Amino acid sequence: MKLILPRALTHSFAQVTIVAMLCVGAAPAPFSTMAHACAFDLTKPERTSIDWILEAETLVLARPNPQNPYSYRVVEVLRGDKDTDQVPLLVHTLNRKMLLLNPDDTVLFRQDEDQKWIQVAYNDRAFNDLLQITLANVDMWKDGYHPSRFAVFEALQSSPTPRLRELALRELDKAPYEMLRDLEMQFSTQDLLDELWTLNGYPYQPIRVLLLGLSDDDKARKEIYAYFSRVEKWDNANNIGAFAAALIELEGTAGVAHLDKVLMSNQDQPLNKLLGVIGALAVQRGVAAPDLRQKIDHVLARMVSSRPETAPLVAQQFSAFSDWSQQEPLEILVRERRLMTAADFMVVSVYVARARGAAPTEQDTPEEG
User: What radius of gyration, in Å, describes the C-alpha atoms of the chain?
Assistant: First the structure.
């Protein structure tokens, strides 16, 4: 299907996912198939304004009522009851001032499941272009993350409007990792670094870190290595999965070796820290070249052999991608009865059983030649 763009935008817009368990502290289900790119995030809202536009049953544009500038009058019903004529909310002071200065602007509202009205966005000219794109592509965008949606927000990285650049960042956070790796980066490394540890930027730290990993920039390398130097002796490390994925993206096998040195071969590292790192290894193995896959396999095999209590984490993370490449080292633990609890034995045994029954994946099929 072709992306539908309003005529005014045809010249202004250019044309795997990470499992939720990568969040430190998340409690993974043994064989979850959930795989969202926002899975590294700990505190950010799940939905963007684009999601609300796609999902809302009632969607209207409103302006202050000429007879009462503190109340809203509906000027257009985009979806829902065409007789809707007002939004029973007071006009926010900032909105009132902006709307007074800009007579073509409106406010976009939706009704939630409890029939409460909620503002989705201030609808100025820049956002209205995006609104029209979204409405024109509802059928393509409402299920999954369509490449055309990614293309729109890839282009918005360079928007002159700060709130659209922020929206682009949030939307890229939802993209499958394989898609994200093909991003034509327009966010500068310095901009990503400047917001990495700020109060406003922290909820979106994971996507910024992943983008740093795609930057191939020495300033990004310095930041990522510094992070691991800091957290090496910490009991907890938020967003460690995103930092691990970025390090591997930047450094390849050397990145895996560094993770092994500072974390995975250290017998004293808490399991909750290793959870995110193992998740990053699972993500990267799915998109890796053969030499990197071999390095990941070697490090994981050595880790589960020396610390059998890490085996369930490997089983959980890799099963989320239906990646059965860790069958051999985990099967050894089952066969030698080295798993210490019934729960660990069950999780690993189920992974091994499913691996036996799975057809060889393309990534593990020997290459000809």
Answer: 24
